[in-house]
Design brief:
Helix content is 70%, strand content 0%. The chain is built from five helices and no strands. The chain has helices at 2-24, 33-43, 53-59, 66-82, 86-93. It is elongated. Helix 2 (33-43) runs parallel beside helix 3 (53-59). It has a domain at 33-93. It is mainly alpha-helical.
């Protein structure tokens, strides 16, 4: 009888230990670009649709000034605008 009781106690200790390990290793929730865009829209950031995920995370970070936000958005808009018209220029050159 004593042997069975010891085995039960060991099982209970192991199961309790595995329960705590499982609780600690829960995956973090992913922050999608869509969620970041909604937050940027709520904060009133202009042209948030042209920002990539890293830029959105930087813009929404705490402690960033409005001037830094404007500079990031201006760079993204410039990058976005530069993508327009290249296809037509290539066809005319041929």
């Amino acid at each position: 009888m004593a042997n069975k009781e010891k085995q039960k106690k060991k099982k209970q200790k192991k199961s309790a230990a595995t329960r705590t390990q499982v609780a600690e290793v829960q995956p973090e929730t992913k922050v999608t670009r869509q969620v970041l865009m909604l937050k940027a829209k709520d904060r009133g950031i202009k042209n948030f649709r042209v920002l990539n995920k890293n830029e959105l995370m930087h813009v929404l970070a705490e402690g960033i000034t409005q001037q830094e936000i404007d500079a990031l958005v201006a760079g993204a808009v410039k990058r976005w605008k530069s993508g327009w018209g290249k296809g037509k220029a290539r066809t005319k050159a041929k």
